[in-house]
Amino acid sequence: MRNETDQKGGMTEENTPNTTPTSENQNRSKPKRLRSLDALRGFDMFWIVGGSGLAGALAKYTEWGWVEWLSGQMRHPGWSGFTFYDLIFPLFLFLAGVAMPFSLGRKVEQGASKWPLLRKVAIRACALVFLGAVHNGLLNFRPLAETRICSVLGYIGMAYFFAALIYLFSNTRHQIIWSVGILFGYWAALMWINVPGHGAGVLTPEGCITAYVDRALLPWRFNMAGQLYDSQGLLVTLPAIVTALLGGLTGQFIRSSKLNPFAIGGLLIAAGVVFYGLGKLWGTQLFISKELWNPTFVLHCAGWSLILLGLFYLIIDALGFWRWSFFFMVIGMNSITIYLGVQMVHFGHTSGFLFGGLVGKTEEPLRAVLGSVAYIATWWIVLLFMYRKKIFLRV
């Protein structure tokens, strides 16, 4: 979603917590800028701009157990299960929700009408749907039946739109009710709606209600030949709304809390542990699945997102140790550029042109490690240039 950070890596007025310190002590106890949000977003996107490839190359080079474990976390497990790579998408959506109180909420408090704000969010959502389709090859102008319209960007856009709609026109209590209601309503649909030829509660790619709806209603192809479902399809958008709403509730807590930053960070981590535990508890009855984005996946990812945000908040905003995170902040400023650029720009060729001579002088498997580092460095140089020039792809 739209990045609200300023040139120096902090938040703009829209995303700055609404605090007006009246004393030096208050000024020390409350961070003026939520740098942790941009840093964590950058950490999330780092794995897309080469971090996952670097983990794999390091695993082959070092053969260290923990690096091999990390490399194994850099791939999706399939229909069921969970790896760190599954967290990248929901963490990004969660953080987009965290930003809502600092952007939309601030404007409402300043007297802005809610409907024009919602109209802007709707335009952004449509833009993300279009950009996602472009990412999938829309401009190849193939027949609609051969073009996949559903996409990660479109999924984010629609989930964020409905989350913003609920956020703007309901209070905190009602947002919690909406979150619980959507989550259990989606669970009920998975378990109780009869799928022709399969029955109810058949949570397989062939028999689940989400796949049936996609096959029945989507006029375009799925992302792989012969695939029976779309992981960014129609019904799976519903639980993603909850992911964004949970981020919004978290942002409201951070922005309105009168507690000191250390207490806020600690409570974020504690809440993350609770959500993680709830996901594990429900997981004894319902397996976790990113492809279904089912309730256990929502709770599991919310737990990890809260824990990570709490840790980043404690280190960066509470303790004030933020300079180390500048590397990630630069990445977090242009998340949409990264997502589109990975598909549309051949950065591997560019990194080879810039660093190929140096990398080529080494032997495998060190060459693969240096090649991954060169790829990340190429991306970061481009993103740093955009950062310095205030060039941000926003919708």
Describe the fold and architecture.
- The chain is mainly alpha-helical and 395 residues long.
- The protein is built from 15 helices and no strands.
- It has one domain (24-388).
Percentage of residues assigned to helices: 55-70%
- Uncertain runs with pLDDT below 50, 5 residues or more? 1-29
Return the domain count: 1
Structural class by helix and strand composition = mainly alpha
The largest β sheet comes out as: none
Order of helices and strands: HHHHHHHHHHHHHHH
Arithmetic mean pLDDT? 86
Our count of helices gives 15
Task: Please state roughly what percent of the residues sit in beta strands, choosing from under 5%, 5-15%, 15-25%, 25-35%, 35-45% or over 45%.
Answer: under 5%
Query: How many angstroms separate the termini?
Result: 7 Å
Number of beta-strand segments: 0
Taken from the alpha-carbon principal axes, the silhouette is globular
- Output the radius of gyration: 21 Å
What is the quaternary state of this protein?
single chain
Per-chain topology:
Blueprint: H1 24-29, H2 35-62, H3 65-72, H4 88-109, H5 114-135, H6 152-168, H7 172-192, H8 209-217, H9 237-256, H10 261-283, H11 295-318, H12 326-332, H13 335-344, H14 347-359, H15 366-388
Helix pairs in contact: 2-3, 2-4, 2-11, 2-12, 2-13, 2-15, 4-6, 4-9, 4-11, 5-6, 6-9, 7-9, 9-11, 10-11, 14-15
